[in-house]
Amino acid sequence: MRPIVAISMTDTRIIYGFHAVTARLRQDPDVVAEVYLAAGRQDARAKDLLRVAELAGVRVLNADPARLDGLTGHGRHQGVAARVAGGRRQQKLGDILDTLAEPALLLVLDGVQDPHNLGACLRVADAAGAHAVVAPKDRAVGLTATAVKVASGAADSVPYVVVTNLARTLRELRERDIWTVGADAAAERDLYAVDQRKAIAWVLGAEGAGLRRLTRETCDELARIPMLGTVESLNVSVASGICLFEARRQRGGGR
What we know:
The protein contains ten helices and ten strands. By secondary structure, it is of the alpha/beta class.
């Protein structure tokens, strides 16, 4: 059991949803003050959360629907919420990968500049069950207040990892047997021909410019999204959703 950590109640915030709370308990339990779980929950997800919380030494309190609604501002809490320390601590990609019980599914963003697009990408990554969103430190918008707001809670549920050198990070992923696939409209193969049952990182470029040359050359392969209409490109968050959900489809749909 972890030592008791004093967390000021004036410097905390609420996260919610099974994915967000369980991930935080696994990856950074010291910042979790307490967990609120809907009374009477005995399903598999609740039991898994209780097990993880017990291992982390975090107390779980029963809560009725009204209290959970109040804590989360009537968000889609799925019957679980947690009070965590207010600041965001930078997570290391290697630490996240070491905790996974399934093949990695990552979204790598190469220089996304629009905070609305970043927030939308985080929401898509959360919905698809991606394990992390990776972005470079430079030439990228960063996790601004606007991006967090647009993410609608996904900024807490999906680890956002900032790296100094994106090409080097892609090479490090290859060393971990994680296949990196760059989304490129000029690629010969489409995404449906890519085997996504194995560990994979989808790499998508910035609005308009697409992947940078070095990023494109560093990817293990390139794949395109078939475009059957008159438009030539998709918003990066839409493209991210198509790629990530195809991976989930190939893996059987659920986590």
